[in-house]
Amino acid sequence: MGNAFIDIKGAKQNNLKNLDLQIPLNALTVITGVSGSGKSTLAFDILYAEGQRRYVESFSAYARQFLDRMDKPDVESIEGLPPTIAIDQSRSVKTSRSTVGTMTELHDHFKLLFSKIAILHCRGCDRVVERDTAQSVFKKLSTLAEGAPVILTFSLATSALPWEEIKSGLQRAGFHRLLCGQTLCELDDLNEAPAGGEALQVVADRFAYRAQNRKRISDSLEQAFHYGKGKLNLFLPQEDWRREPFSNHLHCPHCDISYRDPTANLFSFNSPLGACETCRGFGRVIDIDLDLVIPDPGKSLSDGAIKPWIHRARRMRRLLNFCARKKIPTQKPYGELSEKHKQLIVNGEGEFKGIRGWFRRLERRSYRMHVRVMLARYRAYLLCPECQGSRLKPDPLHYRIDGKNIAEVNAMSVGEAQHFFDALKPAGAADQVARLILDEIRRRLGYLVGVGLEYLTLDRQSRTLSGGELERVDLTTAIGSSLVNTLYVLDEPSIGLHPRDSRRLVEILHRLRANQNTVVVVEHDPEIIKESDYIIDLGPKAGEQGGQIMFAGSYDALLKDERSLTAAYLSRRKAIPFPSRNRKPFLQRSIKIKGARANNLKNIDVEIPLGILVCITGVSGSGKSSLVDEVIYRNLKKLKEAPTANIVDCAAIEGADKISEIVLVDQSPVGTTPRSNPATYMKAFDAVRRLFAAADLSRLRGYTPATFSFNVEGGRCETCRGEGFEKVEMQFLSDVYTSCPECHGSRYREEVLEVTYRGRNIRQVLDLTVTEALEFFKDSAEIKQSLYPLRAVGLEYVRLGQPLTTLSGGESQRLKLAAHMARAKKTGTLFIFDEPTTGLHFHDIERLLRAFNELIDQGHSIIVIEHNMEVVKCADHVIDLGPEGGDGGGEIIATGTPEQIAKMDRSYTGVYLRPYLTRDTASPFTPVLESVRARHAVPSPADDNAITIVGAKEHNLKNISLNIPRDRFVVITGLSGSGKSSLAFDIIYAEGQRRYIDSLSAYARQFLQVMARPNVDLLAGIPPTVAIEQRLSQGGRNSTVATVTEIYHYLRLLYSKVGKQHCVKCGRQIRSLTRSQILDRIGRGYRGKEVMVLSPIVRGRKGFHKEVIDGARRLGYRRARIDGEAVDLRSPALFNGLERYKEHDIDIVIGKAKAGGREVETMVDQGLRLGNGVIHLITERGEQIFNQRLFCLPCGIGYEPLDPRLFSFNSRQGACAQCGGMGFKWDFAPELIFADPRKSVRASLTAIADSFSTNAAHLQRAVRRLLQELASHIDPDKSFGRLAKKTREEILNGGSGPARRQAGGRAAFGGVIPHLREIWKDGADEANNELSALLNESQCSVCQGRRLNSRAQAVRVDGKSIWQVTALSVEEAKEYFDALDLGQGKDGNAERDRAVAEKITREIQQRLNFLAEVGLPYLTLDRRADTLSGGEAQRIRLAAQLGSNLRGVCYILDEPTIGLHPRDNAMLLGTLKRLKDVGNSVLVVEHDEATIEAADLIVDLGPGAGVNGGHVVSIGSPAEIRNNPDSLTGAFLRAEKKRLGPLREFKKSHWLTIRGAKANNLKNLDVRLPLGMWTCITGISGSGKSTLVKEVLYKGLKMKLGQFAGRPGVHKEIAGWQSLTRVVEVDQTPIGKTPRSVPASYVGLLDEIRKIYTLTPEARLRGYRPSRFSFNVKGGRCEECAGQGKIRKEMNFLPDVFIDCDACAGARFNEETLSIRFNDKSIADVFRMTVEEAVPVFHAFPKIARPLKILDDIGMGYITLGQASNTLSGGEAQRIKLAYELGKESHGKTLYVLDEPTTGLHFADVEKLIHILHRLVEMGNSVVTIEHNLDIIKEADYLVDLGPEGGEQGGRLVACGSPLEIIQDGKQSYTARFLRDYLNGGGAKSPPSRHKTAVEEATA
């Protein structure tokens, strides 16, 4: 583990003064200090920004661009930083889906609880619905009298089958009677089906009930359930033939209603399974609100009762005519009309469509802005008529727990829910199931109560919560999520909390810390400061005078500190003074409120005296905001505007005439852009500008006050538009702001700055502080009056031009107060302040109270909602609400002076106020929670520093529970398919990442692949997780080393931001073009000719772009060019925007006119402004671009602005048009199509058709059609090589030569190659993969292999194009970027370029360093990903992921040793150990022995695979596992490394010789391989193994055998191949890409199984053919789901969900097909069988039994016959292919090529694989494997070791021979050293040692 501190060095962010500090881990730290001292900078801009940025680095670059881009803070170093989550008030929740219940995850636990223990009541009869069994039915029979007769039947639906067939079928099954009404009928007596057409009641048994006959009756019941498909009936003849129905499904037999099984998502309104279909789970629908349409029912129709029609004469005329026809009175008040008349007016009749019809018509025209505004006025969210606001479908509401359904539980307040769940005591088995879930629910409800939120209802929408409430809900969510090793940064969580609740909040913070997290709180509340573990006090003052550490240490040490201002107040050396005099209210002037009833107010009467400071207090949720905001402010505001206005939420208000105006000062932000500053906000800047405009120079030049504004054109700098800086958007990095190169940050043009006032220009004035400005403008009363309030509220240090966005929360609050003070011209204003002490230190509160006193002295009145006792004690009058929150509040507890309140025992405020009023008592700031601080919170499962998993049932896991220690190196191992990945990835990784991602914004979450919640009862102690998964498919041709490592993303960003465009024609660097030069060129070139000016707005961006289209319409533009098409912007087709997922180009048409006039000049100006300096000019000559920044004057070519996509060879903007960004052209090669010219044309094309797999049958047909067409032109049986050159050309490329003449003048043959191109163009990926074998690569002649178009190649940085940089190796690129310095340019942009490049190059260098560290310095950045070896690709993935410097994370790796030589393993293990040592957990799914031996702990799953796996077999250290008799892994670890197969002699063997192999890095290699033997090719990763075997040997032999696998790698010759007839690559590519493809069909046994089913008597009787039993063709399959077994549920607001088809219940077939049974199994049952289960079932059928037995033998017994092929791993697919090959009849002349066949295999599976490969060799075949696994290497007959290193240092033959020869002779060979040690019992470890054991024995 690392240090127990977060170590920050050299923090210089914002106003911090180069701070060095340590923040303790696993502690509660408070950062305090005066407002503006740098607290938020330290907590959020440094700790949070860096902690989140480092974790988010593990996400993809695509996902990162949508996240809040955190700037890398200005700090030298931060060590030991865990992933960070911020809990602040700025996180807005906008979605209506989020509720208090969903945010706190309570709803998720409710769903789980209801799915487990809720009791279902039938919607028809309200009886309890339960599943019956034979035992439960027998139990219910016990109410009958002994000997009572019972007739047991089951129902059989009548079908189209003949009655004789039905009858004989029943008799064969042993049933001979039917119950017809109340009569028993013998089947033999019935010649036709009973009349009535109802279901037949087949008698299963007749018996007299006796308890001792239990077995016989139970057997009969079981039989009836079986044949009745889960339903049976009992008829009681003695009780008037009463029928008692039973069902073993979730089915009400009385009402015959079936119900869906209760899954968790059935109870979720955020899932398509549970959400009400009318409102989609929102609980409300948007509709016309008739109360808004008819606001005054007292008006008659003719007087304008229908408000939107008042000014619409035609509409009114139609209404009155309709009323006359229908005799509806129009003079009568609308409210008095009959219900029928009202309905006619609302819904209309005939031609008159009514109010609703009129609005429906409007909705069709809602693409118009004014119509949308109109609709918004009369629409409202109304309760959903279907679900009545419950949000759910009807079915889930019939499940109840303790009489409550889930909607009723969600409607409870937190307090009520706590009582309900505390009292809930489930009985029996339900208690065991529910205990864990209930504990979690109670825990989370306890947290919510603990932070004072018991009054919130669980279904309250999150977006309606206040900032403080939202932060506290977030806080409880954080504790409930049980994340550990996380840094939580909180921003004043005590806001809105009464001191009573502050203490409970502290306990919650302690609990969060006790979960082994670090908690950092920015806070001023003494209740929280005194209970913290560590305090950092910043100061000494605010702004530039702050940013220093005044104190860091414990609370006790703080109180003794003399420098700290905070300590002075806490120790009471300083105190906020009491008011100097007691103020009395204005005589007979007060506001009286009667009967206030908003929200929870209990009809209260309140009197508020005026002219004094009135404080309204009370615990959280007691009704303060309801009283002040909703009753007082809202109603007084209305009454001041219209004295007769209707008041709401109270009976009456008196005294509105006693105030002149009412002002609410709330916590809304003061400024959202850097343009707003204190001078403009205080309205002082207007007067300043007037002063400057009055200067002599201004008058001489005609300057006006507007000239000195940086917000409008005129005097401002137009380069930065008065911003003073340039914002450089950095996509997935935070944006960079650099000083404007034109005005250097001054915001103004140079000539404007020449105007001065008293020796200062306008920029220098904006740099003055308030104090300096008051002195400077002492002669201007207007400016002084505006600025003086700033000094009064303590903001004298801020500068006049400081952007408001840089102010702290406390500074913003005081600025707002100052502005209101400056504007309160009339006396008698009533000010309302909502928690004005938010963000304020004691020192700031003292100043705030001074400002209040000043306002009151000016004759104003103040109402303050406040919990801060320092403010309450200074109030003149206090109104205390309570006694509790929510329903327990809303009453007045006490009113009077602070002293009177303090005497009230019933008042919580009084209790906490007392110590503040008595000067002699002990300080109220003494810690009281020592007991809480001393002991950690309630012991939790996380206390033992482990990830606790309880009840994991994901996939095949069998309800396992285990503890995995954190901060350790843990290996999860076990048989393939035993559940390792389910545990590691689907549970631990999914949940660790999901819990962290939940802290991100909802917007960001939609772009992240959030994995589904795992099926697990409890998961605790889990840190944030990062997965480094195996991607078995190689990178494509479009990927390079630079793109895979994301280096190319940063390079594209670098070139687009600081690249210098050069002209593609003349090569000169492009310069800027002025407006006058553009106009001059247009005038000279096109004078008198019509030109059209377009402004480019969007370039190649996906999205709807509705705001762009709406904005253009608003600006008055009518036309646009969208994706090259001219469109009318008013077109209804554009109302919903464009296609979301397609890239779009949008150019707005500015206008059309003749060049040379004023009109074109105006159009150009508008176009340049709108298009950011770029316009497109369309003339009769074509289109030309003019760009103010990028224009080549000599060539007259303009360029679009640089964009990162210009440098992407995967985008249409950057890719070379000729090769599509590939760098090479791919075309069909004649020498591959006609590989052997001696063969006839027919033989060559037939061989091609035969080489295609069954997945590409259409290709076979296409090639055969081509052959037929060719046969009508030439003789296809002639040898291709003997045809004339012209004929050969015509065959290949088509034409009209000899072939045409030979064919008697028919149409010319199109050519083989054009025909194949056509097939390629239309083909799917799978088919094209097959065709690719005939393709050849050749360098693109246009881009010379550089992939980019000429424009992208012409952009340079430091003189280099981007392709030149990517051509460098990793080592060379490191040197290049180390030396790169862009600060030396001469064009004025050098400083900007340096600032931008610094951020990007830092990211590039970090990635380059890591590539070098994992041993890949030799790779070039443009190396194609598909040419990398497996080991190189794996290390690149590691390099891309492990570069972050995080602590406390759980890294989860999936078989990281794949593709790695044992030598490279040591390097990998070193990297993983380093990760662990800095305080991370490392969890590896692995089978490699060296990795297992290096682990601190091993989790061994098994004992078998698939259904036989999913148990924890053993858990412990390597030594403990080795000694565990139950562990298969342990058995192999302790086993001797003996050879399993026979030793073979080479003497009689034929040899295959490869000569002169030079492909990729092979060094003119000559290699011999024995045939009829097993050869293993080994060597370091990147040494050339795959190149030799797959490129040279496999493709070369394929070509020799007249088959096709692509162009072979370069070599001279392959000799000795003649004895081979086949060469087969058994790789890990999928055996099918759709769920319709299954293993049973691949190995060829499905056809045989279908044949068996067609031979059954029933199938023969019905004439069923094999296709009847296929789910891919109509007839036998279920047509509801088209044989898929699943139905896709689409909902536009949620991901699609697949649910079992209701018709076939997931069986895929229809009922008739399923009724055909073999061995009492339907075809669906067969698909559900595992291979292991199927072996005995089909043992009598050799064609089926043989492949099944082979699958079982190779360890695939656990897969089901119907498992979708796309769910199989690469290793599983490879073994199925092996089984297929083994199942074929062998002639012993096949060469099998396998690339790392042990991928994903456990030792036991490797052993099975070894036996299979030996079996293949024993059958006379040859096997060549590429492998690093020493178990495989020792088994091979012959080894070829390549090396000695990877890349350019590889490609040589290091050693060859048998394993024994290699280990004795291989000096240069790493493989020899590791193999020697392995055989000597040392395992696959490094360094190897020399022993005299197994090797000597073997030699002897």
Count of strand segments: 66
Mean pLDDT: 84
How would a crystallographer describe the biggest sheet?
Answer: 6 strands, mixed
- Considering DSSP H and I runs of 4 or more, what fraction of the residues is helical? 25-40%
Tell me the strand percentage band: 15-25%
In DSSP terms, counting alpha (H) and pi (I) runs of 4 or more, how many helices?
70
Low-confidence segments = 929-943, 1297-1306, 1691-1695, 1885-1900
Q: Classify the secondary structure makeup into a structural class.
A: alpha/beta
Strands of the biggest beta sheet: in what spatial order?
Answer: 5-19-20-3-21-22
Evaluate the radius of gyration. Answer: 41 Å
Distance between the termini: 50 Å
Describe this structure in words.
The chain has 1900 residues and is of the alpha/beta class. Helices cover 35% and strands 18% of the residues. The model is unreliable at 929-943, 1297-1306, 1691-1695 and 1885-1900 (pLDDT under 50). The chain is globular, with a radius of gyration of 41 Å. Helix 17 (499-514) links the parallel strand 19 and strand 20.
Summed up:
The protein is 35% helix and 18% strand. The chain has a 6-stranded mixed β-sheet with strand order 5-19-20-3-21-22, sandwiched between helices. Strands 27-30-31-25-32-33 form a 6-stranded mixed β-sheet, sandwiched between helices. A 6-stranded mixed β-sheet has the order 38-52-53-36-54-55, sandwiched between helices. Helix 10 (339-347) packs parallel to helix 11.
In terms of topology, how is this protein built?
Layout: E1 5-11, E2 19-24, E3 28-33, H1 39-56, H2 61-64, E4 75-79, E5 84-87, H3 100-103, H4 106-117, E6 119-121, E7 128-129, H5 134-141, E8 149-156, H6 163-172, E9 177-180, E10 183-186, E11 200-208, H7 214-227, E12 231-236, E13 242-247, E14 251-252, E15 257-258, E16 284-288, H8 290-293, H9 313-326, H10 339-347, H11 354-363, H12 369-378, E17 379-383, E18 399-400, H13 406-410, H14 414-423, H15 429-450, H16 467-480, E19 487-491, H17 499-514, E20 518-522, H18 526-529, E21 534-539, E22 548-553, H19 555-560, H20 565-570, E23 590-596, E24 604-609, E25 613-618, H21 624-641, E26 652-654, E27 661-665, H22 678-681, H23 685-693, H24 696-701, E28 725-728, E29 736-739, H25 762-766, H26 770-776, H27 781-792, H28 809-823, E30 829-834, H29 842-857, E31 861-865, H30 869-873, E32 877-882, E33 891-896, H31 898-902, H32 908-917, H33 930-934, E34 946-952, E35 960-965, E36 969-974, H34 980-997, H35 1002-1005, E37 1016-1020, E38 1025-1028, H36 1041-1044, H37 1047-1058, E39 1060-1061, H38 1075-1086, E40 1090-1101, H39 1106-1114, E41 1119-1122, ...
Parallel strand pairs: 3-20, 3-21, 5-19, 19-20, 25-31, 25-32, 27-30, 30-31, 36-53, 36-54, 38-52, 52-53, 58-64, 58-65, 60-63, 63-64
Antiparallel strand pairs: 1-2, 1-4, 6-7, 6-18, 8-11, 8-12, 9-10, 12-13, 14-15, 16-17, 21-22, 23-24, 23-26, 28-29, 32-33, 34-35, 34-37, 39-50, 40-43, 40-44, 41-42, 41-43, 44-45, 46-47, 48-49, 50-51, 54-55, 56-57, 56-59, 61-62, 65-66
Helix pairs in contact: 4-15, 5-7, 10-11, 14-15, 15-16, 16-17, 26-27, 27-28, 28-29, 37-51, 42-43, 43-46, 50-51, 51-52, 63-64, 64-65, 68-69
